[in-house]
């Protein structure tokens, strides 16, 4: 739960983990030196095409991704992370590491407390 809170604070457009999955795939492909295109992303993630188009549009409008026609096949659109996306994930990784490995973290999710409040 703490990590979900961190995601929403640093990457506020991640209303669902679908957007997060798309972003992770784009960053992972770019880090591996792979030019990933929309067709491949849609094939790897089992979500509706219309919802995926909405996610790509939002990410592009928020300057999180750069989309360009594939020079080798103009029918495909290659997706790359922007510097803004890289900075957001860097900040998220640093905060997540603090939350996971800092025993004094004040905002760690306490499952016992949450369950007790349900009773």
Task: Tell me what the structure shows.
This protein has helices spanning 2-10, 17-31, 38-44, 49-61, 83-101, 111-118; strands at residues 65-69, 77-81. With 119 residues, it is mainly α. It has a two-stranded antiparallel sheet. The protein is elongated. The two termini are 20 Å apart.
Summary?
By secondary structure, this protein is mostly helical.
CATH architectural category: Orthogonal Bundle
How many β-strand stretches? Answer: 2
Radius of gyration, taken over Cα atoms and rounded to an integer in Å = 17 Å
CATH H-tier superfamily: Winged helix-like DNA-binding domain superfamily/Winged helix DNA-binding domain
> DSSP helix count?
6
Indicate the low-confidence ranges by residue numbers.
Answer: none
Integer tally of domains: 1
**In what range is the share of β-strand residues?**
5-15%
Largest sheet: 2 strands, antiparallel
| Alpha-beta classification | mainly alpha
Strand order of the largest sheet: 1-2
CATH topology: Arc Repressor Mutant, subunit A
| Helix percentage | 55-70%
Mean pLDDT: 81
Distance between the termini: 20 Å
Main CATH class: Mainly Alpha
- The ordered string of helix (H) and strand (E) elements is HHHHEEHH
SSE map:
Layout: H1 2-10, H2 17-31, H3 38-44, H4 49-61, E1 65-69, E2 77-81, H5 83-101, H6 111-118
Antiparallel strand pairs: 1-2
Helix pairs in contact: 1-5
């Amino acid at each position: 739960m703490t990590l979900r809170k961190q995601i929403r604070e640093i990457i506020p457009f991640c209303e669902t983990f679908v957007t997060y999955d798309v972003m992770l795939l784009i960053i992972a492909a770019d880090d591996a030196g792979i030019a990933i295109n929309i067709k491949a992303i849609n094939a790897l993630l089992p979500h509706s095409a219309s919802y995926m188009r909405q996610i790509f549009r939002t990410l592009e409008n928020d300057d999180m991704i750069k989309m360009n026609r594939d020079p080798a096949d103009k029918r495909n659109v290659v997706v790359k992370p922007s510097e803004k996306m890289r900075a957001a994930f860097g900040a998220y990784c640093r905060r997540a590491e603090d939350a996971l490995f800092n025993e004094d973290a004040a905002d760690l999710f306490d499952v016992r407390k949450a369950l007790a409040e349900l009773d």
